[in-house]
């Protein structure tokens, strides 16, 4: 059950709790915390996700760790992290899995790893990956606006 005092405490201490998991990424932690706090003030479109982030960088700098920490500290369980290993999907499978994840688990953190596997020879992300995101989020808005709180 939702408790205003617990919510306030969670938001107040979120940055420090995330820093207990993620080291050396203070700017990213601060940006995530600020966005989550802003989204919880009620000044947002309820048909949109709480926030969207793009963490880019070399392997082992804390991108997935931060997503996992957010699931643990904000949603109180690592089960609220849905990880998509992008090298495992073709377009049709990815769109289906992402759309299903958005509808079934609206209150969760979705993370996409090995996105570099979807970069073509020219250095740009393959069209299907971008189209998959657009189609999945558009489908979510049409089919499930009441659950749009991830």
TrEMBL record:
Transmembrane segments: none annotated. The keyword Cytoplasm does not apply. One of its GO terms (biological process) is cellular response to heat. One of its GO terms (cellular component) is cytoplasm. Residues 48-100 form the ATPase AAA-type core domain. Pfam families: AAA_2 (PF07724). Keywords: ATP-binding, Nucleotide-binding. The keyword ATP-binding applies. One of its GO terms (molecular function) is ATP hydrolysis activity. It comes from the Eukaryota. This is ATPase AAA-type core domain-containing protein.
């Amino acid at each position: 059950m939702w408790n205003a005092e617990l919510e306030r405490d969670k938001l107040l201490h979120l940055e420090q709790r995330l820093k207990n998991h993620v080291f050396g990424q203070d700017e990213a932690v601060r940006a995530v915390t600020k966005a989550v706090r802003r989204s919880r003030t009620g000044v947002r479109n309820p048909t949109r996700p709480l926030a969207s982030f793009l963490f880019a960088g070399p392997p082992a700098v804390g991108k997935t760790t931060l997503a996992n920490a957010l699931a643990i500290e904000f949603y109180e369980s690592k089960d609220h992290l849905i990880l998509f290993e992008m090298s495992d999907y073709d377009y049709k499978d990815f769109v289906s899995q992402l759309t299903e994840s958005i509808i079934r688990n609206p209150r969760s953190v979705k993370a996409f790893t090995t996105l570099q596997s979807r970069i073509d020879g020219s250095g740009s992300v393959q069209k299907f990956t971008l189209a998959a995101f657009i189609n999945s989020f558009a489908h979510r808005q049409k089919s499930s606006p009441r659950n749009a709180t991830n």
